[in-house]
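Internal tracking record. Fields below are filled automatically when a chain is submitted to the structure queue. Please do not edit lines marked as system-generated. If the sequence contains nonstandard residues, flag them in the REMARKS field before resubmitting.
Queue: standard
Priority: normal
Entity type: single polypeptide chain
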Amino acid sequence: MIVCIGIAVFDIIFDINKPIEENKKNQAQGLRFNTGGNGINVAKVLNYYQMPVQFIGAIGDDQFGKLIYDELTGSGIQVLPDLCSSLIATPVSMIINNTTKDSRTILNYKNINTVPQPNFNKEATLIYSDGRFPEYTKQGRKSLPNIPIVWDWEREEHYINNKSLIKDKDILICSEDFINELLGKYAKTEQEIVEFLYSELSFLSIIITKGAQGIAWSTNNNKILNNIPAISVNALDTNGAGDVFHALFIYYYSKNSDIAYVLTKANILTSQFVSQKGFLEALPKIE
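SYSTEM-GENERATED OUTPUT FOLLOWS
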């Protein structure tokens, strides 16, 4: 059982074929609805690969929250009924997708002032946390103190809000944007940032995802960064690629603790994913 702690978002997506003009009625060529967010996407992918999953996130007791709840539970993902809270509004994004320029404009709304008290599945063997809800992760660490957390940090605030929760079994997968936010504040180079994080926090391993530049990684035993190059493919759709990489990492890590092997497999399969269009329907087969 994998517990996924993270944000849940209901996306309303308009497809357009020209730029939006202000103070004018703009006609969309397509309309789609999607449930997303880091936590939900990782949960969906793990569930697709037939791993038992429990989702913990902030869902409002509103029409959007109920749609998210019904979709997740309908696919077999464990979501407790009392997770939907009247105290919050489910985050909603309106995405204007310009099909002629392959560009997006996103308008997001979220009003999360508190989170309900969840009950964590005691059979869980690993927690994934996207760093946005330290209250949930703190409760998870208290309920399940002996299992590792795979952290997904994209911004400096995720480090600040969660650093007191780190244990030596944990793994950090962070974006290059996160590293860039830390540069100049805590150290001057990428390697020095990694050494700083190890000196402050007891991670087992730190992994940096760098898009077209591949992956950099190290372990606490040897803090020197190793590099795995990106695989050259004809990328047709990169939406959700980061979440797919995280889920594939968790899938393989739950079966093999060799970080280099796990990263290599996740890297190869994520490259296959972006060469197809879609999300679940674009996921590669795992042999």
